[in-house]
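Researcher: Here's a chain I'd like modeled. Treat it as a single chain, no partners, no ligands.
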Amino acid sequence: MIRWRRTLQRPCDATAPVVRALRSRPRGWVAGSLAENRLQRESIWIPMTRLQDAAESRLVPMGLNLGDQEKVPDDLTARDCYERIWEWHRAHGETIAPERLDGSTLDRYLTILPEVPTEQDASEDDLAFLVNEVLTGTFEWSYHEEDGHGIKMAAYAFHAVDKAYGGNIATVVEAAAQSVLTRLKG
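Model: Modeled as a single isolated chain. Structure tokens:
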């Protein structure tokens, strides 16, 4: 027999459980299955308002949204993408990064940023370094930041990966390791 609970015994992330509606549920409540949770094998009850709050919150989504990558013009080269990422970070990085980063990550970012060469001076390894950092490194905080063209930094990075490396992230990581900027990551 299912017992209906109006309060949670412990906080949970409302987006994590698989949510299924039941015909006999109390109005405004849904059941969240914790079958994957090995510590507890029962359903918990989550107020619908909690799910709505989670859906409307400003949580940063993982990955790009549909259409984000399509905003990048096809004729943009990997170097053009590098230039746009570089220009955005030079213009906004020092003001926005302190709001998003702290401690050693912020220090590392502020150490690397002035050393990133311009598009004309950048080697292929430097290009790979910056793209890799936007996708998975110190510059990742800017993943969902948009430039003046309304294009996200990650969309530029993925476009550069597609253009210069045939979509192979492993090749980007290998090339990034060869960049002289790698020594700054400490």
